C-alpha cells in the first residue's frame, strides 16, 4: 500500500507537468484584471476550479508521500528534484488564482529546498510536510475571503443589459435617463430593491416634468403624486379628442402614471423607507410602461 502511494505521486506528477496550462490573468476570466465583473458559474469553474484542484491535490499527494517516508519508506532517488518541479508548477497555478499569502509561503519553501540542494543538505521531511500543510491552510484562508454574488437566471437580462432595458426608442429619445435606467436594472438584479426605486425616482422626475411641459402644466416643484395627476388630468380634460389626436394617448399615459403612483406606495414621489423585491419590480415595470408611452407623445 505504501509503495502504491509513492507510485501514485509520481504518476500524478507526470500527468500534472504534461497537462497543458491555461492562460494567465485575473481571478475571473483569465484575460484582464477587472475587479468587478459578472461571470458564469461555468467560467468560474473552468478558470479557477482546475488550478485549485491541481494545487490542493498536489499538496495532499506530497503530504502522503512524506508521511510514508517518515514511517521508514523509501522515496525515489530523484525525489527532491521532482519535488522542486512540482512546487514550481504549483506556484504558477497559485499565481493564476492570485493567492498572495500562500504564494509568499511557497516561495520561502522553494528557497529552503533550493538552499538545501545547493549545499548538499538532506531534506528534513517533517519540516517539508509542515510547510505544505501550512500552504494548504493559507490557501483555504485566502479563498474564503473571496465572495461571489450569484445573479438568478431570470434576472440576468437586468444585469447584462445586452439590449436597452426600456427599449431602443426610450434609449434614443431620453438619453439623459440611460444611466439611471441601467443602474435601476442592475440594482434589481442584485436584490437591492430600495436602491432600484431611488434610480426610478430620478427617471420619473425627468419624465413627469417633460409630460407636464407638453401639457402646459408646471410641475417643477411638485412632488405629491395626487397633485401631479390632478393637474395632468385637468389639462387632458380640456382637450378636444377630435381636434387633438394625441388626447387619447395623453390619457393612456396618465393612466399608466396612476399605476406608477399606486405601486410607489407613497404619497410623494420620494421613495418610502424600504421596498421589497416584488414592490421594486412592479414599480420598474410600471415606470417602463409610462416612459414608453412618452416616446409616442413627446
In brief:
By secondary structure, the protein is mainly α.
Characterization of this structure:
- This protein has 298 residues and is an all-alpha fold.
- It folds into two domains: 2-144, no CATH class; 155-295, no CATH class.
- It has helices at residues 2-18, 41-70, 79-97, 100-118, 125-144, 156-160, 168-173, 178-189, 193-215, 225-237, 247-264, 277-295.
- Helix 2 packs antiparallel against helix 5.
- It is rod-shaped, with a radius of gyration of 32 Å.
- The termini are far apart.
Strand content: under 5%
User: What's the tally of helices?
Assistant: 12
Indicate the mean pLDDT: 80
Identify low-pLDDT runs. 1-34
Could you state the order of secondary-structure elements as H and E? HHHHHHHHHHHH
Number of strands: 0
Main sheet record: none
Give structural attributes:
single chain, 298 residues, mainly alpha, 2 domains, 67% helix, rod-shaped, disordered N terminus
Secondary structure layout:
Layout: H1 2-18, H2 41-70, H3 79-97, H4 100-118, H5 125-144, H6 156-160, H7 168-173, H8 178-189, H9 193-215, H10 225-237, H11 247-264, H12 277-295
Amino acid at each position: 500500500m505504501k509503495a502504491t502511494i509513492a507510485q501514485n505521486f509520481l504518476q500524478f506528477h507526470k500527468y500534472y507537468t504534461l497537462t497543458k496550462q491555461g492562460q494567465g490573468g485575473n481571478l475571473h476570466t483569465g484575460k484582464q484584471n477587472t475587479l468587478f465583473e459578472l461571470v458564469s458559474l461555468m467560467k468560474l469553474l473552468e478558470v479557477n476550479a482546475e488550478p485549485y484542484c491541481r494545487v490542493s491535490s498536489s499538496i495532499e499527494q506530497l503530504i502522503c508521500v512524506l508521511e510514508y517516508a517518515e514511517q521508514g519508506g523509501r522515496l525515489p532517488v530523484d525525489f527532491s528534484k521532482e519535488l522542486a518541479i512540482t512546487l514550481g508548477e504549483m506556484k504558477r497555478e497559485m499565481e493564476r488564482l492570485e493567492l498572495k499569502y500562500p504564494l509568499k509561503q511557497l516561495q520561502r519553501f522553494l528557497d529552503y529546498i533550493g538552499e538545501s540542494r545547493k549545499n548538499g543538505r538532506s531534506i528534513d521531511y517533517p519540516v517539508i510536510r509542515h510547510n505544505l500543510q501550512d500552504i494548504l491552510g493559507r490557501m483555504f484562508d485566502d479563498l474564503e475571503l473571496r465572495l461571489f454574488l450569484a445573479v438568478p437566471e431570470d434576472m440576468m437580462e437586468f444585469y447584462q443589459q445586452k439590449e436597452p432595458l426600456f427599449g431602443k426608442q426610450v434609449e434614443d429619445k431620453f438619453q439623459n435617463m440611460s444611466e439611471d435606467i441601467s443602474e435601476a436594472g442592475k440594482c434589481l438584479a442584485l436584490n437591492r430593491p430600495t436602491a432600484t426605486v431611488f434610480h426610478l425616482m430620478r427617471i420619473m422626475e425627468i419624465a413627469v416634468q417633460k409630460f407636464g411641459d407638453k401639457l402646459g402644466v408646471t410641475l417643477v416643484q411638485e412632488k405629491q403624486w395626487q397633485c401631479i395627476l390632478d393637474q395632468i388630468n385637468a389639462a387632458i380634460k380640456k382637450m378636444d379628442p377630435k381636434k387633438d389626436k394625441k388626447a387619447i394617448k395623453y390619457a393612456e399615459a396618465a393612466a399608466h402614471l396612476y399605476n406608477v403612483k399606486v405601486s410607489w406606495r407613497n404619497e410623494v414621489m420620494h421613495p418610502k423607507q424600504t421596498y421589497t423585491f416584488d414592490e421594486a419590480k412592479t414599480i420598474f415595470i410600471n415606470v417602463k410602461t409610462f416612459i414608453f408611452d412618452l416616446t409616442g407623445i413627446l
